[in-house]
Amino acid sequence: MKTNLRKFAIFLIFSAMTAYAIVFSWPMLWTDGWETPWILLLLSGTMAVHLFKRFIKSDTLAKHGKADKLAAWMLLPIAVAAAIIPYSDNQIITTGTAVMLVVLGCISFWASIKMAALSIGLAALDCIIIPIQDQFFLTLSQPLRLISTNVSVFILKCFGMQIEAFLTTIYLNGANIAITDACSGIQQFEAMLLLGYFIARNQQKLLKSAVFQYCFILPAIIAANAIRIIITILLYNYMGEEVLSGTWHQMLGFGQIAVTLIVLWGAGIIIREITGETGEKQQ
User: Fold this and answer.
1) Which stretches of 12-138 are assigned E, i.e. beta strand?
2) What is the longest distance spanned by two Cα atoms in the chain?
3) Which segments within 101-238 are labelled E, that is strand?
4) Is 210 helix (H, G, I), strand (E, B) or coil?
5) Sequence-distant (≥ 6) Cβ neighbours of residue 83 within 8 angstroms
6) Taking the CB of residue 278, how many other CB atoms lie within 10 A of it?
7) 52-66 burial, b for 16+ CB within 10 Å, e for fewer?
């Protein structure tokens, strides 16, 4: 295959994925709050640009054989099966999974199996996550709230505070404090997916280390949210319900974002120290 033709094919595939995400998330583009997918679309575009640059600068253009084409054809019947097997009540997920497999097959055919593997995250983001962003984040919100609530209550109990928790409700001095979706860290998660991407790429020299650091986003959000809940409870004992809303609530939210970034950055420093990376920076 001609090199320029393969470059153009990969460019079209990445562009088609972005278009797919925009079309299926179009109604949400004009909503407010975390339901809008603009940040994820920006992340998608950034990932696509970096992957395309990696493709044209790597030796993938020279190393392209029958195994890559065979893998592409093998993904086709799997995609068909994913489209017709009713394993999900959400047709968008079913269709998105099938489209993602077809996309990965096309990338394997025109680029390589390795390039297809590197593109799994982008394909899942464009074909599945962005089209169902509101459902995805609402589903993720519950375990985030539950873990953060129990971690914070456990720590406060260790310091002798009389406090209890049931699911995502905290019982303190006869008062019930509910940890809602807005307090779960889910509103910061979308922004952290984008910021964490740039942080990991900036800190790590090797791709595998950057991916490993990127996986620390969820633990960082949980840790920051637990700290936020602990500080909120301590302030509640002195200030009452005032701390649960208004300026204090907003300030604690901004503080949570700062702590999340610090934890993620610190994880990156530790990873670099452990791996002792000396290779060239990943593209």
Assistant:
1) none
2) 73
3) 164-166, 169-172, 175-178
4) helix
5) 94, 95, 97, 98
6) 7
7) bebbeebebbeebee
Q: Which two tokens stand for residue 219?
A: 């633990």
The amino acid that residue 106 corresponds to is C
Cβ-contact 14, 44 below 8 angstroms: no
Amino acid 6: pLDDT: 86
Contacts of 254 (CB under 8 A, 6+ apart): none
- Calpha distance 46→260 (Å, rounded): 22
DSSP 206: S
The helix/strand/coil state of 3 is helix
| Rounded Cα–Cα distance for residues 41 and 133 (Å) | 11
Nearest C-alpha neighbor of 283 from the set 223, 213, 221, 206: 206
Strand partners, 177: 170
**Exposed e or buried b for every residue in 225-251, given b needs 16+ CB within 10 A?**
bbbbbbbbbeebeeeeeebbeeebeee
pLDDT in the model for residue 87: 59
Distance of CA 115 to the CA centre of its chain: 20
The pair of structure tokens assigned to 190 is 């979308």
Q: What is the pTM of this model?
A: 0.80
Structure tokens of 16?
């088609």
Residue positions counted in the chain: 283
Mean pLDDT by 10 residues, the chain (283 residues): 81 93 82 71 92 81 75 88 70 85 92 91 92 82 84 85 80 75 67 89 88 90 86 79 70 82 90 71 51
Which residue's entry shows tokens 């995250």? 121
Give the DSSP letter of residue 164. Answer: E
One-letter identity of residue 113: I
